[in-house]
Amino acid sequence: MKGLKFIVAFFVLVSFVVIPAYGDGLASETLPPSIIGNRNVTLSINSSPFLIDNFHVGTQVNFALLDVNSQQPIPGVTLSIAAFKDDNSLFGHIFKSDNGNFLINMTPEPSGDISVDETGGILSGITGSHSGSYDVKGPIFNEGGLYRFKIEILTMGSYDNQVSKSYNAAISIPETKYYQTYDNQYGKQNVTIIAFYDKIGNFQYDSNKQVMSFSMPFDWSDDNVKQVSVVHQEIKIPRTFSDFIVTKYDAQVNGVKLNDKAISIDDYSSDERIVHLILYKQDLANVAKMQQNQKQEMDFTVSPSNETGFPIIQYTRNAQYKVSLSWDPPKILPGTTTKFRFQVLDPYLINKTVDSIGYDFSIIAGKMGSVFHTSGQTNSDGSASIVSVPMPANYTGPITIAFENLNGNSFAESEFPGVVSSPPVVPEFPYTSILVLLLIFSFTIILTRILPRKNYRI
Predict the structure, then answer these.
(1) Which residues contact 449 (CB under 8 A, 6 or more apart)?
(2) 210 and 148, same structural domain?
């Protein structure tokens, strides 16, 4: 549904939003509080824009030394900042800000030396004031990945008040990668991966096993695993890639199977199916403990699960309702009848059905368009409603299961992706072979009846 881009995205993606947290690997980070002198302070780091793509012209990184109690920047701050990417040093410089807030514009250039200039014009140089705004130009921040910073606080409160405090921090700039795969049944398919931690590579797709795999650098040291808050990968799969439009996925990192809660399906934010892999601290600790060969990377695999993840729950376009859907049998086959079972739920209360309301229900099958439509009322007792659908015998591929006009509201609609699978291939057994086997079997029975039996004595 093309309208599922605005209101609903807030409800569905709220669990994926990265908020400031303690640890590295985020586009926004607030470090743990610490005492410097007689003040309780914390250092906040933010980057914008959130994503590096084909339209990227620069990244702004904001550093702020904050008073924990007031959450206001501390004035008269001097920071020594050194930036690193992979094993390479990018730049090092001493920055000053009268108000404790630093805005550093990272402008990528294809080559040349890295320059650092304070902005503020002639007046700033005459008055000796420091705006905290700087331009850093050169071959930096021109790609996504993990950027690490070593930060030394040299003054705070005033430029005469010298202090000494070190921080190690990092931010992750997401990067989008596009891959074209080839499937034996569905041909060329374009898969997109957005890496929210570090750069990914070595993408492969095994059509026979239906497994996608890719890798990402990662430091598995105990200190780093304890510090990292989250690792997030986003895989976009076209809806034409029918065998990958399933209700549940299996995923592994370094051979360790991820918990189902680490795998989320998003059918709202894009015209494509989005699979989120989100590893929090406990997931990372579990992989670190169970992996057999500890390499300084994460090797991901993703494949359709043999299990079915029912029910599937989605919000309506206007977020007025949630629709809970499952079907039986779990594998939809052409020429068979599938029973679709659904409930319309309150969007805010868990498992609370709404009163009986009207609905339109449709099955849309690719270029064939709508192959089934019915209207009805949900059950007044809160039990699941069932719609039996005879699937076309001449169609396999992706389908859309559409709910529209819930309670008469044209904006209260929701769509679920599904797929009509090819029927299992039954090996052909020639008629002549069957006839030969029957003749041999019959001849054997006749022989056992007409041949004389011999008695043997010992």
Answers:
(1) none
(2) no
80 and 181 in a single domain? The answer is no
CB atoms within 10 A of CB 209: 10
For the domain that residue 390 is a member of, what is the CATH number?
A: 2.60.40.1930
Which of the listed residues 109, 144, 173 is the one where a domain comes to its end? 173
Q: Which of 168, 22, 162, 143 is nearest to 81 (CA)?
A: 168
Does 112 share its domain with 132? yes
**Which of 99, 40, 98, 96 lies closest to 70 in space, CA to CA?**
40
Q: Does any domain span residue 319?
A: yes
Place of tokens 């029975």: 445
User: Could you give the C-alpha distances from 209 to 144, 304, 318, in angstroms and in order?
Assistant: 30, 10, 39
Q: Spell out the per-residue pLDDT of the chain, length 458, in tens.
A: 444 444 444 444 443 433 333 334 456 678 888 999 889 999 988 887 655 554 556 788 999 999 998 889 999 999 999 999 887 899 999 999 999 999 999 888 888 889 999 986 555 556 678 889 999 999 888 887 888 899 999 999 999 999 999 988 888 888 889 999 988 888 899 999 998 888 899 999 999 999 999 999 999 999 888 888 889 999 999 988 878 888 889 999 999 999 988 998 887 777 888 999 999 989 999 999 999 877 899 999 999 988 778 888 888 988 899 999 999 998 899 999 999 999 999 988 888 999 999 999 999 997 788 999 999 999 999 899 999 999 999 998 889 999 999 999 999 999 888 888 888 765 554 555 555 555 665 666 655 555 555 444 44
Beta-carbon contacts of 405 under 8 Å, excluding residues fewer than 6 positions away, are 358, 359, 360, 412, 413
Q: Which residues pair with 404 in a beta bridge?
A: 360
Answer yes or no: do 48 and 159 share one domain: yes
**Which stretches within 228-338 are classed as H helix?**
281-290
Alpha carbons 243 and 391: distance in angstroms, whole number:
18
Domain shared by 71 and 200, yes or no? no
User: Structural domain tally of the chain?
Assistant: 3
**Domain for residue 269, yes or no?**
yes
Global pTM exceeds 0.70: no
Q: Where does a domain end: 304, 330, 356?
A: 304
CA 387 to chain centre: 32
- Contacts of 17 by beta carbon, 8 Å cutoff, 6+ apart: none
Q: What is the CATH number of the domain that holds 110?
A: 2.60.40.1940
Q: CA-based diameter of the chain, in Å?
A: 127
Residue 7 lies in a domain: no
- 148 near 24, Cβ under 8 Å? yes
Instruction: Confirm whether 67 is domain-assigned.
Output: yes
Range of the domain at 366: 312-420
